Amino acid sequence: MSVLPGSIIVSHWHRFPDSKEFFSRILHKKRRRKFGLLEAPMMPPHMNVDTIRYKVFISGKTGVGKSALAARLAGLDFPRMHYETTGIETTVTFWPVKLKDSERVLFFRFEFWDCGESAMRRFDHMLPSCKEQVDAMLFLFSFTDRGSFEDLSNQISRITESSDRVVKLVVGTKFDLFMHTDVTESDVTRFKEVWGLPVFRVGGDVSAGLGEVAPLLNALAEDLWHQDCIAASSVSIATAALSQTDTEIIV
After folding, report:
1. Coiled coil where (predicted)?
2. What's the Cα-to-Cα distance from 122 to each of 66, 115, 129, 180, 240, rounded to whole Å?
3. Which residues of the chain have pLDDT under 70?
4. How many domains, the chain?
């Protein structure tokens, strides 16, 4: 499930003057603040902003850049040398958005879960722990690793079920290493036609700016908020129908 980009939240809001006070809460000296599991941005009394919490699982083969993506989205530094995650790592990211219709501002708290492929194969409880109460999944492949792209379909089928109410997005990493690309644009187009999932591209270099992470974080926020609105609407309809039935019985 994916909605049209910019249909629910204001696109590129981080560039607008009225966003500065909100984004300043996740910045320190023009760089992103690091938040632990129990930490949150300090909000002054006049800023009445709701925080919406979501759990996001990052899935992909070893070496595609799962930990690097989590660090990138949180604005953190990460080692240039690759090492496989030995267990489960969690990274917290706060991201403010402005809704188009109501102009309401929300703070999204994304908790990214990343698990090493070897650990997942070795310990049976790893994948169920990552999937428990998960709200969204990011499926990664590397533009420099053809095998990781060809494994996408198997990866999505293995981890998710058709009944899952989970937002799914695909991310291609190392996009800026075009001299070594093993995945073409036509490959990506065919994948999107078959699976109906959006594909985002991230490079290997990291800057301190918000612009490089805004498209993916905004897409996550938009799809998750849309999913929750649909769920809330379904509950309201079901409650109304039940109330109507009770009234008819009483009459």
Report:
1. none
2. 19, 12, 14, 32, 48
3. 1-2, 79-83, 119, 177-179, 204-208, 234-251
4. 1
CATH of the domain at 32: 3.40.50.300
Position 59 in a domain: yes
Rounded to 10 degrees, what is the CA torsion of 62, 204, 197, 9? 130
Let me know if 74 is exposed, middle or buried by CB neighbors in 10 A (0-12, 13-18, 19+): buried
208 three-state secondary structure: coil
Q: What is the pLDDT of residue 241?
A: 52
Residues spanned by the domain of 76? 13-250
Which helix (DSSP H) or strand (DSSP E) does residue 136 occupy? strand 136-142
Contact 151, 189 (CB under 8 A): no
pLDDT at 44: 87
The mean of the pLDDT values for the chain is 85
Sign of CA pseudo-dihedral 119, 113, 27, 142? positive
Q: Cα–Cα distance between 119 and 152 in angstroms, integer?
A: 19
216: nearest Cα among 74, 77, 103: 74
- What's the pLDDT at 8? 92
- CA torsion, ordered 138, 12, 99, 193, to nearest 10 deg: -40
Q: What pLDDT sits at residue 198?
A: 92
Predicted pLDDT at 239: 52
Structural domain includes residue 3:
no
Domain presence at residue 33: yes
Do 151 and 115 contact (CB within 8 A), yes or no? no
Measured between alpha carbons, how far is 241 from 141 in angstroms, rounded to an integer? 45
Asked if the structure places residue 210 within a domain, the reply is yes
